[in-house]
């Protein structure tokens, strides 16, 4: 790498550490500078700058970190530090309030986005009104004893009734034939047979297949 690029890398490291004023490893600096300079150039720049005293090097085991030379910054008295702490606390509270407001507005926005538009609401109101009017007319017809079943519906009901009555009679006839055959060799009465096998007849409930 040329001396010009090395100098640029060293300048970028010094400016970054002075601006952030906190410790970083050479790899952190390389990444935080968005890899604008090569990793080797950043490592060499950190080592050179620490040797010349422009930045400070701290060693923790095998890890080296670099920090800006604190001697270049003006002294800060305790009162100023307290003022800064109070300012930080105030700004933190304001940030918290703004965060809560953002969450509230975001929730409100989601609610508005999920709600229907005025045009859709008017259309739904019209549809529901028409349905209510139709139900009211049907209710009035029922109260007046009017016909509410169409001829087609009535025919379908009658045909279904005829089908089920025929099936009822058919099954009753088959059951009676089977029981009659059993009774031919059964030593007891018909009533005793029915009680023994648990048969309940239409007559027990005073029922009979209706006329078709």
The main pleated sheet reads as:
2 strands, antiparallel
Helix residue percentage: 55-70%
Would you identify the regions where 5 or more consecutive residues have pLDDT less than 50?
A: none
Radius of gyration from CA coordinates: 48 Å
User: Topology as H/E string?
Assistant: HHHEEHHHH
Shape: elongated
Report the sheet-strand fraction: 5-15%
Write down the overall mean pLDDT.
87
Strands of the biggest beta sheet: in what spatial order? Answer: 1-2
**Class from helix and strand fractions:** mainly alpha
Number of strands: 2
Count of alpha and pi helical runs? 7
Q: Give the end-to-end Cα distance, rounded to a whole number of Å.
A: 108 Å
What does this structure look like?
- The protein contains seven helices and two strands, in the order αααββαααα.
- With 212 residues, the chain is mainly alpha-helical.
- It has a two-stranded antiparallel ribbon.
- Helix 1 crosses helix 3.
- The longest helix is centred in the middle third of the chain and has 37 residues, at 78-114.
- The chain is elongated.
- The protein starts with a helix and ends in a 15-residue tail after the last helix.
